[in-house]
Amino acid sequence: MLDAFDFIVLRQPTRKQRILCPVWGRAIFVFDMDRYQGRAIVIEAQDLTPIDWSESVDPERARELERLRRDGHGIHRIRKGIQIRVTPTSLRNTVLYRTLFHEIGHHVDHDRSCVSDWEGKTRATKEDYAHRFAQELHDRLAALGALPFAPIIDERSLLADGLQQEWFCLP
Hints:
Helices cover 45% and strands 21% of the residues. With 171 residues, it is α+β, with helices and mostly antiparallel strands. Strands 1-3-2 form a 3-stranded mixed β-sheet. A 3-stranded antiparallel β-sheet has the order 4-6-5. The radius of gyration is 17 Å and the shape is globular. The two termini are 29 Å apart.
């Protein structure tokens, strides 16, 4: 399973990217950046700003709202639609225990499919597989007692990389 991709990339989207195309992460099948080439999972940096959705909720969006609720986000009806309130813990649950596994699922599905089969799959079929893969992996790891796990703070690495601990929202 881990040989399905080569890199995990942590990325800071621009404000414009966050507004126009907000995502938790992406599966990149052809990643090419400087001297790094291969398959990647890109995890997008997030903040704790509430996320506003319109009132119009199709079945897929309703399922995503339920997944976000299970992750611990507050889901509230507001005048203009739905507001998702993010906490450090709910964000960690979404990114680490769901998005990462979901993107691994896309890579596994891609690897198990020939080119014509992959290209013939609908977006919904690909997403359903990745959601199912993520949930099954989460359930297996939780049953083994591997999830959830406490945050691991490596102060030496933070200092060596010029990072400050207060820049990170730690649950």
